[in-house]
Amino acid sequence: MAGFGFDTLALLTAAGFAGPVLASVPHLRIPLIIGELVVGLVLGKTGFGVLDESNPTFQLFANIGFALVMFVVGTHVPVRDREVRSAVPRALLRAALCGVVAAALGVGLAWQFETGHAALYAVLMASSSAALALPVLDSLRVTGPPALSVSAQIAIADTACIVLLPLVIDLRRAPVAALGVLAIAAGALLFFVVLRAADRRGWRQRVHHYSEKRKFALELRTNLFVLFTLAALALRTHVSIMLAGFALGLVIAAVGEPRRLARQLFGITEGFFSPLFFIWLGASLRVRELGEHPKLILLGIGLGLGAVLAHSVGRLLGQPTTLAVLAAAQLGVPVAAATIGTEGHLLAPGEGSALMLGAVLTIASTSIAGGIAAALAARGAPGR
């Protein structure tokens, strides 16, 4: 790919259909991103080399997609749900226990594969994905205290691991990264205070109606301005734009996301920027290196199974097994780790692909657990 023009955009848009095509296969429950990653692998370094992931324009578009994806992930965290908040104490206990087990497994994997990334592996295995797991819970119509508790647990793990990732992926830069995290948190908090003040005075509602009437999309413009400002701050403070997007998503989730804004974000993110980002990520991975370093395949399997095992300890505290496995679903954190590690040359050759392999295994486990939970619910049996 010599340049980046409309022909490339047309190719990327067409390639993005791979996600919906695979996701439409009955009974398999394949997430959209799998098809997008696969087509990226085929067109990128691993496959035919049609896409050049190092092209500056391609990288900029992918970074915009990354920020938007994490923004949407943040908006999925149920911070306003009072019932979910009431389930926090028990969920926090399970998340902490999961973290302890993940830390032990991380040390073991890092020692076995001699990578020195014990802290990174621990964060990966302890993470959850609110954007992936919560919609599965909704589709299964799982209700009651167990569902509320696992929703709270997923939200806690998702938030904690996304904050921890920039600190553990490169321990030498952890102090600088910590300052960057604080800067992003301060920026997001300031925006939250402004939005709450505007909400109380009725300004936000008036702007919403005015924008809807005049078709100005003022809320979308404002959120994109804040998102790109936080992303610029993240880059200046040497923190991943992942955190900028997620922090803004949490702010919008906390003050309440208007339906119109949700539809607009869905359109620009899922319709273009998200597929483009995952295609770029697939194109940047060198899966062939897994063949050159077969032990990294075992690392990916270990990370995937380790995540399921770490979350399954919730069974010791009375959590149904199917819900425990659902909580192991990973998306944002391993994607961010592979992206940051690839761009910063922080991972060994093929290690980024191993991280993604582990994430895919957790997604497969979630699909199986979801199917079992749906079958048990249909028979009126408890989801054990």
TrEMBL record:
Localisation per UniProt entry: Membrane
Q: Which GO cellular component term is one of those annotated?
A: membrane
GO BP annotations of the record are: proton transmembrane transport
- Write out the GO MF terms: antiporter activity
Keyword Transmembrane set for record: yes
Positions of the Cation/H+ exchanger transmembrane domain: 24-362
> What Pfam families does this protein map onto?
Na_H_Exchanger
Which UniProt keywords are present, listed alphabetically? Antiport, Ion transport, Membrane, Transmembrane, Transmembrane helix, Transport
TM stretches of this protein:
60-79, 91-113, 119-137, 149-169, 175-195, 216-235, 265-285, 297-316, 354-378
Q: Transport among the record's keywords?
A: yes
Primary site of residence:
membrane
Regarding the membrane, this protein is recorded as: Multi-pass membrane protein
Family assignment from sequence similarity? Belongs to the monovalent cation:proton antiporter 2 (CPA2) transporter (TC 2.A.37) family.
Q: What is this protein called?
A: Sodium:proton antiporter
